[in-house]
Structure formats: C-alpha cells, structure tokens
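hey so i finally got around to running the thing on that chain from the lab meeting. sorry it took forever, my laptop kept dying and i had to restart like 3 times. anyway pasting the input first so we r on the same page abt which one it is
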Amino acid sequence: MPASTSNLGPGFDCFGLALKLYLTVRATVAPDAAEQCRVTTTGSKENEALPRNAVNLIYRAMSFAAQREGATLPPVELLVHNEIPLASGLGSSAAAIVAGIKLGGLISGNQISDQSIQNYATQFEGHPDNVAASLYGGFLASSVCSDGTVISAKFQWPAEIRVVVVSPHSQLPTHVARAALQRTVTRQDAVHNLQRTALFTAAVAQQRYELFWEAMHDRLHQPQRESLVPGLAEALALPRMPGLLGLALSGAGPSIVALVDGNEEAIAARIASCFQVRRIESTVRILDVDNEGCQVTS
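ok and heres what got predicted. didnt touch it at all, straight out
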C-alpha cells in the first residue's frame, strides 16, 4: 500500500499522488485466539506506539468494511510493516484504512469492488485524495458526489518527475491542521485555486511541466497552516532553481514536497535548510511515484 501526498498546492481534498513508500499488512485468521485482533509491527520506532489490538486503525477499517458488507470477521493476527511516517502529511492513515477495508473483504470472503473500497475509505477518512492515491496509484483528481460516492480520474505519472519529501521531526495531526482553516473564503481566493487546479491537471495531461511552478500556488490552506509548521513560509518562498518544478505542503503537513526533474539532493538541502535555521531537524526522502496502487499477494 503506497504512501501519498495530497493537495499539491491548490487541489485541496481533490489531488492525490501515490509514492513509493509502503505499508505492508499480512492478515492471518486465528480461530482459537483469545482476542479479536492481535497486531505485530515492524518498521520505524514510532510504529511501536500503535495499538496492538482491535483499536488499531487497520482493524477498525476491516470491521467498518465488514459491517457495511453485512459480514462477520473471524479473529485475526496482523503483521504490519510500515515505512510511512505518522502524522507527517504522507497518507499514513489513508493507507491503513484502504489496507483494512481490502483485508476486511478478503478475510470475510466478500469481493469488495475498488469503487466500494474507495467509497467506504472516503467515508472513514473524511476526504478522498489520499485514499484514491493509495488504492489506484498514480496522480488522481477525485470528487465526492451528492450521494456520497466518489469519482476519481487517474493520470499516469511521468517517470522523469520525482518527488522530494522533507519531513521535519514533528507531527501534525490532520484534525489540528484542519482546525486552522477558515470557515469561509473570498471569491478571489476561490477563483485563484480553481484556476491553478485546472492548470495543474493540464500540465500533467499535456506534459507541460513548466506550468507546475505557478499551478502549485495556493490560498485556501497553506497560508493558514504556516503558524503550525515553522519553516513552511520560507520553504514555499524559495526561488526557482535547476530541477525544481514546484513546491507545496504535503497534505496537512508538516512535510514539504517538491516536484523535480533533476538536482534532487541540492533541492532537498535547500528545503531542509528552512527547518534547520529554526533548529528543527528533518528527514529527506527522494521518491518515485507509484503508478500501481494497492497490491494483493497470497
């Protein structure tokens, strides 16, 4: 299950892009187990703090899907290996939710369609952008219809464009980042984002990657979150340099993403310096885009 970055500047709750950084879950039916779910985790140390029982997000998503499908889950053991940092704006919760819903169908013997997985996961997560990317891979624009179903349009991402991710050593829960947003926006700001959302999609469709620089500007969420992410304002104000196509806050943050077609190390160092001057350490990842999405192996 790939990680993802969302919004990409103007595409708030709309754009998602899958990244080659993965959550892997193996589920085993344990009919004689004393508890409904037991979880073993590997990967980064922060995963050790995650619940090891039925409170775990993956299992809660499994249960959610089973209830929606009218199925009953047997006791299970989950072996979880997670490379995705938590609360960093890289879709860790969306990956866990999609994985859980997919496993919920497989374990209960129900073949849940990808469309239903996307609908259930969006209901559970609250927005479709990261969910769609983890499920389908690639770059997607998603919309929630009036009846709650989700429509996504997938674009194959060009291999030559990579993603530099710089994650400060702090966490920013999505609910905190969303609380900082304004309840209303001006027409001018709404039009600003509509224009750039359309421009970003056109840049991908027509392979006009020089348009990303302007297309990734935002007025709806990034300015409001600058106080929550020290160094964000400075990073987004960095000038153009060789290889740098565009910059954005990754999802709700605090990670920052840059679309690049070369010069990755130098670009990463410039972004990391915006945190460093504030005495904040960061982790740099240079990632390719995952165009495949969720994969099931036996």
